Amino acid sequence: MPKHDTIIEDILLPDGNIGHIAVGAGHIVSIGTETSPQADGSKRIKGGGALALPGLIDGHVHLDKTFIGDGWKSHRACTAGFDVRERVEFEKEALATAAPGENRASALVEQVVAHGTTHLRCHVDIDPEAGLKNLDLVLNIRDRYRDAIDIQIVAFPQSGIVTAPGTAELLDSAMRNGADLVGGLDPVGFDRDMKGHLDIIFDLAERHGAGIDIHLHDPDTLGLTELEEIATRTLVLGMQGKVAVSHAYSLGEVPEAAARKTADVLARSNVSIMTNAPGNRPFPPVKMLHEAGVTVFTGNDNIRDSWWPYGEGDMFERVMIIGYRSGFLTDEDLCLAFDLATRNAAQVLGLGINGLEVGAPADFVLVNARGVPEAVVARPEGRKVFKRGRQVASDGRYLGTG
Amino acid sequence: MPKHDTIIEDILLPDGNIGHIAVGAGHIVSIGTETSPQADGSKRIKGGGALALPGLIDGHVHLDKTFIGDGWKSHRACTAGFDVRERVEFEKEALATAAPGENRASALVEQVVAHGTTHLRCHVDIDPEAGLKNLDLVLNIRDRYRDAIDIQIVAFPQSGIVTAPGTAELLDSAMRNGADLVGGLDPVGFDRDMKGHLDIIFDLAERHGAGIDIHLHDPDTLGLTELEEIATRTLVLGMQGKVAVSHAYSLGEVPEAAARKTADVLARSNVSIMTNAPGNRPFPPVKMLHEAGVTVFTGNDNIRDSWWPYGEGDMFERVMIIGYRSGFLTDEDLCLAFDLATRNAAQVLGLGINGLEVGAPADFVLVNARGVPEAVVARPEGRKVFKRGRQVASDGRYLGTG
Fold first, then answer.
1. Quick one: how far is CA B223 from the chain centroid?
2. Distance CA B320, CA B315 (A)
3. Do A324 and B374 touch (CB under 8 A)?
4. How would you classify the pairing of strands A211-216 and A243-247?
5. Nearest CA to A342 among A137, A34, A164, A117?
6. Are A377 and B311 in contact (CB < 8 Å)?
7. CA–CA separation, B123 vs B214, rounded Å?
8. Complex ipTM value
9. Cα–Cα distance, B401 to B106 (Å, whole number)
10. In Å, how far is B139's CA from the nearest CA of chain A?
11. N or C: which end of chain A has fewer CB within 10 A?
């Protein structure tokens, strides 16, 4: 058995037994019910029978938009129904008078870690006005919190690409400067040019050997058409498993038979779908997609920003809302909701991990629950969060990594 | 100024100023920004700048059904879509092997108080099999926790009335034995007899001088017809303001114009509507009803029981879900969501109170927020709960009233 430096004892393991996790060099070196390995002066932590769960993964977040860490900002209503362009304008205005981005992003990162998130995928606004400012901000944040959380960065054209000249070049620079994935935004609804928009982002992805994660709010049949086009390009370019579509509301807006046809296309191309289960609009049918073989994952998306005032960066809350909005009641379904923020998200983010097992990074959360279903509905307080074997949060407080 | 025995200082008042609340004999005797009244040996509590909010009101709860305070109970799925009769059967089976009702109900009461609820309306199952067993249970609980929370009891015919012979007589006994309101259940969908069902409950209410609160899951046009019949009877019998309908899903299932017509009828009869904003089915349009003059209130309804596994008895969570599901984003709308669990619920429960003001019972919660909108979206931890001026909970823990 490899050498360990920390042992967490008396914890409820995923298999329902009380046991231990031994950590060495930031990874799990032993997990199970047998007697804890000899201490050898290693650190011993008592788990008090708490349930050990893998660290949660926020698959879609905007660190550069939040008002967390700032004063309360009242939301301004859309003038006539939801309109992405109007929201973008309101956002620019609101952020102009907000606290420095560094303060807001760091406050949010500490909050998400405190809730039990150990990985996140962050979409960073790239547009001709902001240039690479937001990217630089999030690169700094990523570096500063590298021992508390792993951050994946998507270069996100929030103001479009085709209709915002210069953006394609900025995205290219962003990819050279440290962004991990190429983003996109409503090729038809925003840029009015499906081919033009997708040509650019798939080309960028190919040149940088990167994945893609596209925001797609476009509705019903329009949205399905774009999904199928994205899936087709993914297959043709051999990018299976590297392309995700965020929101994809259209899948929840059409008759189930139509959505199922598109689901089959997505499954064949291994294009994954991110949903945060919004409150008052249809969203992708999680279970149908899962059964069709599509990898569905989740993220908090907007957290108290110009897009909506809700959220506190808690993936346990998000998972509850996924289940609540999807009508999930049985243990099996509640576990599926949980998978969206763990197993499935890990697959989409390419983390190469599958829960708590020997060899995996020692990223986990201890919560007071008797199993995953209860953790999903109860979202217990008093969590203890570990990143690469080191405790980084306790009872909702970020402890730092110093 | 009347004599006070406790002063809570350094709190953020609803008007946005920092001030105090002075309590005497369980009531607010002074509230404002002027210097705190002379102490006279009274108890002084520092609020630390926390926001003072009226105690929350859970307008619909089932203390006799919960599994809180018991082991984790896996949910059993409906065999073919949601069916009230099937649920009732499953519930009986599940409760037969559950922990004693006294333990579960008291665990739940302590939990709801810990979250900041100071009043609740509890529906108690009355049927030929259970008789008045559940009523006796909740009467005991009400007495035991009378210094921590006010409990209003609805005699609820969970197994029907017309189709469950003997129930009408049991409801009558329940009203004599301490129940406050007469309940009902889907006159057509369950009992297949709108006139028969409503004749019985309106007669009982009249004879006992009591109000009515009817569970109505019946869908679309059927549900609207029942709502209009209930409203008409309310008007004819002069029972305006004393009749509530819980759920009334139908109002969210029909075109808005149809719902608006029924809303006008409800407003004229002052029949109020309770919704808990369920996760995956349409529910009453809160804002439209509010604008039409209908009093809308909210409650947690089922809390981890045979009907669904969600909920932890936190009305702050419920208010967030009301807003989230209703698409409420502006401060005004978030305050409306909050009103459903405070001002509106107080009106429906006939409490004769309207927020924090001199003369009102000193039932309030201190939370870390800068205003109601933030309290709604953030549901801050670390609440302090006061019932008639005495602190009954702190940081999520029930303190008792001893």
1. 22
2. 8
3. no
4. parallel
5. A117
6. yes
7. 10
8. 0.96
9. 14
10. 28
11. C
Classify burial at B15, counting beta carbons within 10 Å of its beta carbon; exposed 0-12, middle 13-18, buried 19 or more. Answer: exposed
Which residues from B are below 8 Å from A72, CB to CB? 370-371, 373-374
Give the count of Cβ contacts less than 8 A between chain A and B: 81
CA distance B43 to chain A (A): 30
A71 contacts in B (CB within 8 Å)? Answer: 370
List the Cα angle B125/B129/B134 in 5-degree steps.
Answer: 35
- State the smallest CA–CA distance between residue A146 and chain B in angstroms: 27
Q: Both tokens of residue B296?
A: 């809308």
Distance CA B103, CA A352 (A): 45
8 Å CB contact between B115 and B37: no
Q: Which residue has the tokens 């650019």?
A: A200
Residue A232 CA to residue A230 CA, distance in Å, equals 5
Q: Which pLDDT score is estimated for B82? A: 76
A325-374, pLDDT tens digit by residue? 999 999 999 999 999 999 999 999 999 988 999 999 999 999 999 999 99
> How would you class B22 by CB atoms within 10 Å of its CB: exposed for 0-12, middle for 13-18, buried for 19 or more?
buried
Nearest chain A residue (CA) to B71: A370
CA B12 to chain centre: 26
Q: Which of residues 252-291 of B touch A (CB under 8 A)?
A: 279-281
* Count of Cβ atoms closer than 10 Å to residue B256 Cβ: 12
pLDDT in tens, chain B (402 residues): 568 899 999 999 988 999 999 999 999 999 998 776 766 778 999 999 999 999 999 999 999 999 999 999 999 888 877 787 888 888 989 999 999 999 999 999 999 999 999 999 999 999 999 999 999 999 999 999 999 999 999 999 999 999 999 999 999 999 999 999 999 999 999 999 999 999 999 999 999 999 999 999 999 999 999 999 999 999 999 999 999 999 999 999 999 999 999 999 999 999 999 999 999 999 999 999 999 999 999 999 999 999 999 999 999 999 999 999 999 999 999 999 999 999 999 999 999 988 999 999 999 999 999 999 999 999 999 999 999 999 999 999 999 987
In tens, the pLDDT along B235-271 reads: 999 999 999 999 999 999 999 999 999 999 999 999 9
A392 vs A400: CA distance, rounded Å: 6
CA B68/CA A341 separation, integer angstroms = 26
Interface test with chain B among A51, A82, A300, A329, by most B beta carbons within 10 Å: A329
Cα-based angle B143, A377, A313 (whole degrees, multiple of 5): 115
Cβ of B377 within 8 Å of Cβ of A310? The answer is yes
What's the CA gap between B290 and B309, in Å, rounded?
30
Q: Which of B71, B310, B320 sits opposite A377 (nearest CB)?
A: B310
What whole-number distance in Å separates Cα of residue B393 and Cα of residue B387?
9
Mutate to test the interface with A, among B68, B73, B75 (most CBs of A within 10 A): B75
Nearest-by-CA chain A residue for B324: A279
Q: Verify whether the Cβ–Cβ distance A330 to B76 is below 8 Å.
A: yes
How many CB atoms are closer than 10 A to CB B33?
Answer: 10
Condensed to tens digits (0 to 9), the pLDDT of residues A337-347 reads 999 999 999 99
B310 touches chain A (CB under 8 A): yes
Q: A327 to chain B nearest CA, in Å?
A: 5
Closest CA to A393 of A35, A52, A148: A148
Tell me whether strands A243-247 and A272-274 are parallel, antiparallel or unpaired.
Answer: parallel
Residue contact B334–A304, C-beta within 8 A: no
pTM reported for the whole predicted model: 0.96
Closest chain A C-alpha to B330 CA, distance in angstroms? 5
- Among candidates A74, A310, A329 on the partner chain, residue whose Cβ is nearest the Cβ of B330: A74
Enter the tokens of residue B265.
């009828």
